[in-house]
Amino acid sequence: MLNVVLFGPPGAGKGTQAVNLIEKYKLVHLSTGDILRGELAAKSPLGLEAKKFMDKGELVPDEVVIGMIEGKIDQQAGAKGFIFDGFPRTKAQAGALDKMLSKKNTAISIMVALEVEKQELVNRLMGRGKVSGRADDQDINVIENRIAVYNRETAPVIDYYSAQGKFKPVNGMGTIDEIFGRLCGEIDKV
Ligand code: AP5
Ligand code: MG
């Protein structure tokens, strides 16, 4: 299997690039943000609980996200591999993901981490806020908090994959096609 962690701060382009990557490599896209927004739209208990954290730009508790992603992996028995987008976001999530995959006799192949300047992240998210309807894109304070939470709680996940020799930084500035080419360049080396 080819299992890719697509990593990067809010607005780095994870979702945008995942669409093209799943097409090229025939992978299943698992975005915890998209799954949580789906739960919210369905007004499920999980979605309503998660909303309290998402609207402030805080992380949803690990146990909620880990249980949710495990269910989604189990539903995809025949998959050739996965793109994990927005997950793992803590070292605890990364450890849990390794355990889940090893039960299926597989593992993470690579972590590609998009690197984007902070002002560009803010510009992209504010731009999307005009059309997305996402509550967490509407308010500059929430956007700033998402980036701060990333730096404090999520960036340490890089050390986790670095220790396994799987961390590959990728320049996330430029056009969508240029960045896609850089990502494929790293993934093709796996
Ligand atoms: P999530 O949905 O994962 O949001 P995020 O990480 O904050 O980032 P985005 O999805 O906004 O950005 P992206 O990197 O996907 O960029 P995109 O391609 O959309 O998480 C939302 C919330 O859910 C979290 O805050 C948390 O509360 C909760 N959550 C989710 N996962 C969790 C977890 N594992 N644990 C705990 N809580 C969790 O691009 C952004 C914009 O830029 C778009 O408008 C796009 O068109 C544009 N764009 C993309 N590429 C380019 C480019 N090259 N040039 C110009 N514009 C571009
Ligand atoms: Mg996204």
Could you characterize what this model shows?
This protein is an alpha/beta fold and 190 residues long. The protein has one domain: 3-Layer(aba) Sandwich (Rossmann fold). It is 56% helix and 14% strand. It has a five-stranded parallel sheet with strand order 2-3-1-4-5, with helices on both faces. Helix 1 crosses helix 9 and helix 6 crosses helix 7. The chain is globular, with a radius of gyration of 16 Å. It starts with a strand and ends with a helix. Bound molecules: BIS(adenosine)-5'-pentaphosphate and magnesium ion. BIS(adenosine)-5'-pentaphosphate binds next to helix 1, helix 2, helix 3, helix 6 and helix 9.
Question: Keyphrases for this structure?
Answer:
binds magnesium ion; Rossmann fold; alpha/beta; 9 helices; 190 residues; binds BIS(adenosine)-5'-pentaphosphate
CATH architecture verdict: 3-Layer(aba) Sandwich
Count of alpha/pi helices = 9
- Spatial arrangement of strands, main beta sheet: 2-3-1-4-5
Quote the CATH topology: Rossmann fold
Helix content: 55-70%
How many domains is the backbone divided into? 1
CATH class: Alpha Beta
Mean pLDDT: 97
Which compounds are bound in this model? Answer: BIS(adenosine)-5'-pentaphosphate, magnesium ion
Radius of gyration over C-alpha positions, nearest whole angstrom: 16 Å
Report the count of strand segments: 5
The N- to C-terminal Cα distance equals 11 Å
Shape: globular
Order of helices and strands: EHEHHHEHEHHHEH
The largest sheet, given as strand count, sense and whether it forms a barrel, is: 5 strands, parallel
